[in-house]
């Protein structure tokens, strides 16, 4: 990971779509989905910014960043004395993929934002100037419906919900849907549910198939056809500090995230067939 200035890009022809990857339940593959979907989109020649909005800094760590040692993070951008955003932006080992990193300092942001005017739009004020630099901005939210998560929803165009195939996840999905409705009514009328992606899926298990069928019945076409299988390659690539699409590009998990990226692009009105995919050796 290089901390060199990552802000120099060609002029954009359109404003970036901001997508929050959100689920109040932890351990559902949210960070894994953020980094690998982002990397797969970048492979298509799209300019992608990943925003680590979790004080645990898992997204930053998954991209090889020694996040505990960082002097500047997303937290600093949310404060009144924010540094220039190009001082915080980082390049990654993936072409066209940049990062706004995070660490435990971000946990103090909620306390500081409580008394701020327009506190729910603090993240929007950070990201709005970046929209003309990127095609997509993906926000990795923390596993709770916190003020930080509300900030992500308040500035997002859409939400992708990664969910594990277990019945407890269905309740969490309903709660998140309720929160999105409130945010839509009070803060962000353009907010939409972009889709639900099933992660850690095992087709051999009846339970997994039943939960996926239940989600399909409730949400219809909002459920992505692409499913992400359970595999040890994901934690292995995280330890290596690279997206699986780069660390093991021919693996099943990497191919599934490329399929998810293509499906997402079609839903976004940007046909995957018109995008230039990287050639794998």
UniProtKB/TrEMBL annotation:
Signal sequence bounds: none
Job description of the protein: May play a role in septum formation.
Classification via Pfam families: AAA_31
Protein source organism: Nocardia yunnanensis
Family designation: Belongs to the ParA family.
Ranges where the AAA domain occurs: 17-192
Name under which the protein is recorded: ParA family protein
Domain of life: Bacteria
InterPro entries per UniProt: AAA_dom (IPR025669), DNA_Partitioning_ATPase (IPR050678), P-loop_NTPase (IPR027417)
């Amino acid at each position: 990971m290089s901390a060199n200035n990552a802000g120099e890009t060609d002029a954009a022809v359109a404003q970036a779509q901001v997508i929050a990857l959100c689920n109040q339940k932890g351990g559902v593959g949210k960070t894994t989905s953020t980094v690998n979907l982002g990397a797969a989109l970048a492979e298509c020649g799209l300019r992608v910014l990943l925003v680590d909005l979790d004080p645990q800094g898992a997204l930053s760590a998954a991209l090889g960043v020694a996040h505990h040692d960082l002097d500047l993070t997303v937290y600093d951008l949310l404060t009144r004395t924010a540094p220039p955003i190009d001082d915080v932006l980082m390049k990654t080992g993936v072409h066209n993929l940049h990062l706004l990193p995070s660490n435990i300092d971000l946990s103090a942001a909620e306390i500081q934002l409580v008394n701020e005017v327009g506190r729910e739009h603090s993240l929007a004020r950070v990201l709005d100037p970046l929209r003309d630099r990127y095609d997509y901005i993906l926000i990795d939210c923390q596993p709770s419906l916190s003020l930080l998560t509300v900030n992500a929803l308040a500035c997002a165009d859409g939400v992708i919900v990664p969910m594990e195939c277990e019945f407890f996840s269905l309740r969490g999905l309903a709660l998140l849907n309720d929160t999105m409705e409130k945010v839509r009514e009070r803060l962000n009328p353009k907010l939409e549910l972009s889709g639900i992606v099933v992660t850690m899926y095992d087709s051999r298990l009846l339970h997994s198939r039943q939960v996926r069928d239940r989600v399909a019945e409730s949400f219809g076409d909002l459920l992505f056809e692409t499913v992400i299988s359970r595999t040890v390659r994901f934690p292995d690539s995280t330890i290596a500090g690279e997206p699986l699409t780069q660390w093991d590009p021919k693996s099943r998990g990497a191919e599934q995230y490329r399929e998810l990226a293509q499906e997402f692009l079609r839903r976004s009105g940007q046909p995957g067939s018109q995008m230039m995919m990287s050639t794998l050796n």
